[in-house]
DNA sequence: ACCTGAACACCGTTCAAGT
DNA sequence: ACCTGAACACCGTTCAAGT
C-alpha cells in the first residue's frame, strides 16, 4: 500500500544558502501545475511544461509525484480548496445547497481546463471529501435518508460538473456555428422534428437551467426514497 | 460552412485490379478505430495506431479525417448505432425509457474505452440525434412539456454516461483497494462521519442504483415544469 | 485526387549517473 | 535522498514529393 499519503506533502528541508531559484517541492509542483492549467487549459498542463516552468527537467518531478494521473488528482483537489462550503446558518437547506453547488460551479468555470479535469478524474482528496461531507450534511437536514443521500450527492456533483464542462467547451469554440451548436442548430426538421423544435432550449444554459435541474433532482430525491427499492427486491425474492 | 458532412462518408472509387490490401476509406478508418478502441481502450486508439493497423502512414488518414477530435466524434457515433431505440409499442413510456437508456448503458460498458470517449466528446452525429429524438418522444408521451424535456434528456443521458464511465474506471483497476475505493473506503470516521457511514453506498453500483436514479430524475422532471421558472422571472421583472 | 515518408514539435516515463 | 540529462517509445500534424 502507499507508504505516503500523496495529498499530504512530505516536508523537504530546503538547503541553506543562496536561494537563486525556489527549491523543488510537492506544493511548488502542484501550485505551478494549477497555474498552467488555468492559464493554458488541460493540454497545457503537462509534466514537461510544469518542469520547464519550474526550471528543471521532467525527471525531477518524479521525486514528488508518481505519475501524471496523480498530478491530475492533486491539482483537482488543490482547486477544490476554493469551493466555499460555508453558508450562513440561518439559511434554509435549499438555499445552502444552491450556494455550495453554485460555488463549486463558479470555481470550475473560472479556471480554464478545470471542468475538463474534473470530468476525467474522480475527486477523492481532502477538499473533495469536505465538499462531499457538507452536501451529505445538507441533505440530512432536508430529511433524506443516508443511503439515498449517498447516491443523490453523486448525481448533484455530476450534473454541476458536466454543466461546467459544457460551458467551458462552448467558451473554447471561437466560431459559435462550429461543432455542437452547428450540428444541433442545423438539425433537419423532417428527420428530427422534436430536436428541431427544442434546439434553442438544448443549447441554452444560464442560471435558470442550473436552478431548474437542481430543483428537479432534489424533488426526485425527496420523493423516491431508496428504501422502496430495497423493499421491492425483498418482496420479489419471497415470491 | 463545411463543404462535406463528415458523418456521410465520401465515396471513394476503389481502383480496379489487385486488391492486395483493403483500399483506404472513410468507413474503413472509423471501423478500424472503433475496433482498436474496444480492444485497447481510448489510449490505444491513436491516429498513428489506426494508420499502422491499416498498413499505411499517419499522414494518409488526413485525406478522410480532419483531426483526432473529429475521429473521436465519428467513432462515438459509429458506436451509438448499436443503441436500440426500438421498444415494443405496447409497453409503457416508463418501461421504454428504461429500455432505451439501458441499451445505451449496455453499449457504453460493453466496449472498452467507449464510456470515456462519450464523457469527453459531445455527441451530435446522426445516431446520437436519433437517440435524442427517441428520448424526446418518450418524454412527450409522459406529458412533459418540450422545453423541460430538452433539459431533462440532457440530464438523463449525462447520468447514464457518467455511471458507465465510473463502471469502466472501476473495471480498469486491478487492485480494488487502489485509487478511489481506497480513498473513500478508508475515510476517517472522525473527520468525515457521514461519508464514513455511507461509504459502501457511494461505491455500490448495480441495477438498483440505475433504477433509483432514473426514477428520481423522472419524478423531478414531472413535478418541476420549466414554465414555473419562466413565470417567476416574469413576476420578478414586474416587481 | 489520393497517398506517402520524413520531419517538426511535442508527450510520459525510465535509467544511469551525478551530488 | 535528491536532482538531472539523455534516451526510449510514443504522440498529432504538416509538408513536399510522388502517383
Structure description:
2 copies of one chain form a homodimer. By secondary structure, chain A is mainly alpha-helical. Among the domains of chain A are: 26-65, Homeodomain-like (Arc Repressor Mutant, subunit A, Orthogonal Bundle), CATH 1.10.10.60; 82-172 and 205-238, Orthogonal Bundle (Tetracycline Repressor, domain 2), CATH 1.10.357. The first copy, chain A, is built from 11 helices and no strands. Chain A has helices at residues 26-40, 47-53, 68-80, 93-110, 114-120, 126-141, 146-172, 179-185, 193-203, 206-223, 226-238. In chain A, helix 1 packs across helix 3 (68-80) and helix 6 (126-141) crosses helix 7. Chain A is globular, with a radius of gyration of 22 Å. The N and C termini of chain A lie far apart (45 Å). Chains A and B meet through helix 5, helix 6, helix 7, helix 8 and helix 9 of A and helix 5, helix 6, helix 7, helix 8 and helix 9 of B. Chain A binds a DNA duplex (19 and 19 nucleotides) through residues 12, 24, 46-48, 56-60, 62-63, 67-68.
Amino acid at each position: 500500500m502507499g507508504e505516503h499519503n500523496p495529498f499530504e506533502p512530505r516536508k523537504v528541508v530546503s538547503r541553506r544558502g543562496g536561494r537563486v531559484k525556489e527549491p523543488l517541492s510537492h506544493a511548488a509542483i502542484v501550485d505551478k501545475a494549477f497555474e498552467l492549467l488555468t492559464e493554458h487549459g488541460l493540454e497545457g498542463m503537462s509534466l514537461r511544461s510544469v518542469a520547464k516552468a519550474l526550471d528543471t527537467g521532467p525527471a525531477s518531478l518524479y521525486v514528488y509525484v508518481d505519475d501524471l494521473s496523480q498530478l491530475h488528482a492533486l491539482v483537482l483537489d488543490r482547486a477544490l480548496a476554493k469551493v466555499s462550503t460555508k453558508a450562513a446558518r440561518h439559511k434554509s437547506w435549499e438555499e445552502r445547497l444552491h450556494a455550495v453547488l453554485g460555488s463549486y460551479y463558479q470555481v470550475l468555470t473560472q479556471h480554464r481546463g478545470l471542468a475538463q479535469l474534473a470530468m476525467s478524474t474522480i475527486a477523492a482528496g481532502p477538499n473533495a471529501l469536505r465538499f462531499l461531507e457538507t452536501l451529505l450534511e445538507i441533505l440530512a437536514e432536508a430529511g433524506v435518508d443516508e443511503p439515498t443521500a449517498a447516491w443523490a450527492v453523486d448525481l448533484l456533483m455530476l450534473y454541476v460538473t458536466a454543466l461546467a464542462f459544457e460551458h467551458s467547451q462552448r467558451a473554447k469554440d471561437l466560431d459559435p456555428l462550429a461543432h455542437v451548436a452547428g450540428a444541433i442548430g442545423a438539425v433537419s426538421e423532417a428527420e428530427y422534428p422534436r430536436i428541431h423544435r427544442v434546439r434553442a432550449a438544448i443549447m441554452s444554459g444560464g442560471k435558470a437551467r442550473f436552478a431548474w435541474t437542481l430543483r428537479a433532482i432534489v424533488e426526485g430525491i425527496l420523493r423516491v426514497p431508496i428504501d422502496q427499492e430495497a423493499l421491492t427486491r425483498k418482496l420479489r425474492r419471497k415470491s
